[in-house]
Write a structure and sequence with these properties.
This protein is mainly alpha-helical. Helix content is 77%, strand content 0%. The chain has a domain of 203 residues. The protein has 12 helices and no strands.
């Protein structure tokens, strides 16, 4: 058990680093292909290791298909719309800023739960957390700036769309999937597989081959976003939940914004101003308040 917990802790930090690096990978890919094409390739290369893992562990069952409608909804909320919102938003924003905005996911999750799950308590401290967190989002959006305000707002809106979509997915999964006694690897395989089918119908593939002209962007998309950021990330997440618990697993969302900001500022040289760091701190405070019991 100690070895499993040690491995889970390594997976915890590795997952935070991988998810935090996803934004620069999306930014590189967006210079060559469209956001929808990025999402299709990300899901394709993420689906392969998850499906292989599910097959190897015997998690897939034909009788699971009677819940296919729920799997389809999850494929839209937790994959297609979520990933597209982040890919489009990152294409319009600095990668570090987009990563900082991803820290607001728990805010959207709380709002969705408060609206659709009757057993979710809503207290003054949590409402304050939502207000403070969204103040940070507004600060990053900078709607009163005369310079590129429209682009900033559009990018923030797409990031909000992705965050809202994945927030709704948590509520949907809790209401319709958690009691089905289906292994997480199987749920993820069905989710990604259906998302891949839908994206295959919705994606315009013209020019998608341009991604292979840049080895850095191609490697970031296939290995960073697909294999690691989608496929292996799910497997690592389940390992963390099983050995460290759901609370520890959910706290991994604190790491990616910090990693994304560091990569953007220190490694890529993005002009990220001090207000972005203040805004990120506000988002963290808001999320922390949501995690308190009152």
């Amino acid at each position: 058990m100690a070895d499993h917990q040690r491995l889970a802790r390594v997976a915890f930090w590795g997952l935070g680093l991988v998810w935090g690096s996803n934004f620069i990978f999306m930014k590189w890919a967006a210079d060559l292909i469209t956001p929808m094409q990025i999402v299709f390739l990300r899901v394709l290369f993420g689906f392969l290791p998850v499906a292989a893992y599910a097959l190897a562990t015997g998690a897939l069952r034909l009788q699971h298909m009677r819940h296919g409608g729920h799997f389809l909804v999850m494929s839209l909320l937790a994959t297609s719309v979520y990933y597209f919102g982040f890919a489009k938003g990152t294409s319009l924003l600095l990668s570090g800023v987009a990563g900082a905005l991803s820290g607001a996911i728990p805010l959207f999750s709380f709002i969705a739960a408060a609206l659709f799950l009757r057993d979710e308590p809503v207290g003054g401290r949590k409402l304050a957390g939502v207000a403070i967190g969204f103040a940070g989002v507004v600060m990053i959006a900078d709607p009163f700036s005369a310079d590129l305000a429209a682009t900033n707002l559009e990018g923030v809106a797409y990031m909000a769309l992705g965050s809202l979509s994945v927030g709704l997915s948590f509520v949907y999964a809790k209401r319709f999937l958690t009691g089905l006694d289906i292994k997480p690897a199987a749920l993820t395989t069905y989710q990604l597989g259906l998302a891949l089918a839908v994206l295959g119908l919705a994606t315009d593939f013209e020019g998608i081959g341009a991604i292979w002209t840049d080895p850095r962007a191609a490697t970031g998309l296939v290995a960073g976003l697909g294999l690691m950021g989608t496929g292996l990330a799910y497997i690592a997440y389940y390992l963390i939940v099983r050995n460290l618990g759901a609370v520890a697993a959910s706290s991994v969302t604190y790491i990616p914004p910090v990693v994304a900001l560091a990569i953007g500022a220190l490694l890529v040289g993005e002009p990220i101003g001090p207000m972005a760091y203040v805004a990120t701190a506000l988002i963290f405070v808001g999320v922390w308040l949501l995690g308190t019991r009152r």
